[in-house]
């Protein structure tokens, strides 16, 4: 996939709240925590959601305790469900559609996440066999997004994700192995594998962590200031409150906007081109 095609694919995975019927503000639940000041049941509109589906406190979410709303990213699932799956019919005018629409939304969000990983994987220089498998995965996932709501709800997402997970693991290994090979003093490949590790609150400022494998790792509140995180695989890693100020994530792999939104950083943090710098990051 060339750069332009990848950019276009990513645009479709960018949330456009103006075309969504406030699905994240309605379909998802909230639990009193550091992320939310209230409890809200799934399928119930948030009190701050206005009749035009805009948030009444959008400019002050963090000050009002709704940090979770500034972290969440639907990857474009909201507008897709609103405009494509339900053909622009909203749940206020068509209340009977609400229940199914709210159930479809998190399913679509997961499919969009799989598409985002696939699009990223296709941007790497890979053997043809892998590229072909990824392209057919992408087609399959895109075809699924266009299916009827009932079909989407019948999907076994674990089963759907399994072949992609296998491919992404191979791709991560291949890309990082190539990167490691070019390092001036590479360590043994095993020393880069920290998948699922518990590095909560760990002091890693200024460390060279290039090509590390952090799949599913716990990096909550880790001090990663000025760390070199190029070619690191972050798939599924928990980066909540990790400090990325001044860190270099230019070529980090499988990083999501939501992971970055949940972390801390500043203007000196170098991000992959497809990740936006969060507005709430310090200067
Ligand atoms: S506070 Fe605003 S953004 Fe958060 S759920 Fe409520 S309406 Fe949506």
How many domains?
Answer: 2
Instruction: Give the amount of beta strand, in percent.
Output: under 5%
- The percent of residues in helical segments reads 25-40%
Shape: globular
Mean pLDDT, rounded to whole units?
95
Computed over alpha carbons, the radius of gyration is 20 Å
Number of separate strands: 0
Give the end-to-end Cα distance, rounded to a whole number of Å.
Answer: 35 Å
Segments where pLDDT lies below 50 for 5+ residues?
none
What are the secondary-structure elements, in order, as H or E? HHHHHHHHH
3D architecture notes:
The protein is an all-alpha fold and 283 residues long. The protein folds into 2 domains: 3-28 and 72-175, no CATH class; 185-283, Pectate Lyase C-like. It is 39% helix and 0% strand. The chain has 9 helices and no strands. It has helices at residues 3-11, 24-27, 67-71, 77-85, 95-122, 128-145, 149-154, 157-181, 257-262. The longest helix is centred in the middle third of the chain and has 28 residues, at 95-122. The radius of gyration is 20 Å and the shape is globular. It starts with a helix and ends in a 21-residue tail after the last helix. The mean pLDDT is 95. The structure holds iron/sulfur cluster (SF4). InterPro entries: 5peptide_repeat. This is Pentapeptide repeat-containing protein. It comes from Sporolactobacillus terrae. Pfam families: Pentapeptide.
């Amino acid at each position: 996939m060339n750069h332009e095609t990848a950019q276009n694919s990513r645009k479709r995975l960018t949330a456009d709240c103006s075309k969504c019927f406030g699905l994240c503000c309605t379909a998802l639940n909230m639990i009193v925590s550091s992320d939310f000041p209230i409890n809200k049941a799934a399928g119930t509109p948030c009190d701050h959601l206005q009749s035009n589906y805009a948030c009444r406190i959008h400019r002050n979410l963090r000050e009002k305790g709704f940090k979770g709303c500034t972290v969440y990213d639907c990857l474009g699932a909201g507008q897709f469900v609103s405009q494509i799956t339900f053909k622009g019919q909203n749940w206020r005018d068509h209340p009977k559609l609400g229940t199914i629409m709210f159930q479809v939304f998190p399913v679509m969000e997961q499919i969009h996440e799989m598409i985002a990983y696939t699009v990223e994987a296709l941007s790497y220089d890979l053997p043809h066999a892998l590229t072909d498998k990824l392209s057919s995965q992408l087609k399959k996932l895109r075809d699924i997004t266009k299916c009827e709501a009932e079909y989407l709800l019948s999907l076994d997402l674990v089963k759907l994700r399994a072949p992609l997970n296998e491919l992404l693991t191979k791709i991560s290994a291949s890309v990082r192995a190539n990167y490691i090979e070019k390092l001036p003093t590479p360590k043994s490949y095993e020393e880069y594998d920290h998948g699922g590790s518990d590095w909560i609150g760990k002091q890693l400022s200024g460390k060279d962590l290039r090509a590390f494998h952090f799949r599913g790792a716990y990096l909550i509140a880790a001090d990663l200031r000025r760390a070199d995180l190029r070619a690191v695989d972050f798939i599924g890693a928990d980066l909540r409150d990790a400090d990325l100020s001044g860190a270099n994530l230019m070529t980090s792999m499988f990083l999501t906007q939501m992971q970055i939104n949940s972390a801390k950083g500043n203007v000196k943090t170098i991000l992959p081109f497809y990740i936006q710098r969060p507005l709430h990051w310090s200067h």
